[in-house]
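Just wondering, can you check both lines?
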Amino acid sequence: MWYLIPGLGADERVFRRLRLHGTVHILNWLAPQSPTEPLMHYAARLAESVPLAESCWLVGVSFGGLLAQEIARLRPMARVVLISSLGGPHELAPVLRLAGAAGLHRLVPFGLISCLPRLAQWFFGARGGTEYRLLHQILRDTDPVFASWATGQLLAWQGPGLPGAVRLHGTRDRLLPAGAAPIDYVVPGAGHFLIVSHAAQVSQALNELASQLK
């Protein structure tokens, strides 16, 4: 059983190229109950879609990786896979930690991000054609209120990271670079849009991982 959690503002569209063996569920985002709803409280609400005694895989992409780790603390039968995500708050770039501490993310006009698709394309590492169009659509559809809340939670995340989480990361991730963090599946040349741009490789890695740990 797979439970997939997309990245900040994204939805099931980023998983359409995956070909996974078994039943797949998408954990779509819920609206925050307040601008200050804690990540752990939000994770508990999202976890209501995952049966307590079910053996399953939680696959979190980018910001979704934080939620996968928080949900797994509440669902001990779940195994976690992080794609283009953080294994712990210590992996966040120092400049982003400073921005979060200073509250600078509150000044970001999230509603205007969709007006800068080419800049976003560079940061996400999306290739042209269908990848660029998909990224543009996702940015256009992102709720600015949710984006502001999620960014604040990402920058303020205290963790700790979840031991045993399996990690997939691209070598050209400009948004959340892996740095010196240990990565189980390194994808050469892939950026932050790894889940889309290299979906075949991601699918193969996930299916192999699941078959090995049955």
User: Anything to note?
Assistant: Residues 2-212 form a domain with the Rossmann fold fold (CATH 3.40.50.1820). Helices lie at 39-46, 63-74, 94-102, 117-124, 130-141, 144-156, 194-197, 199-212. The longest strand covers residues 56-61. The CA atoms of residues 55 and 77 lie 5 Å apart.
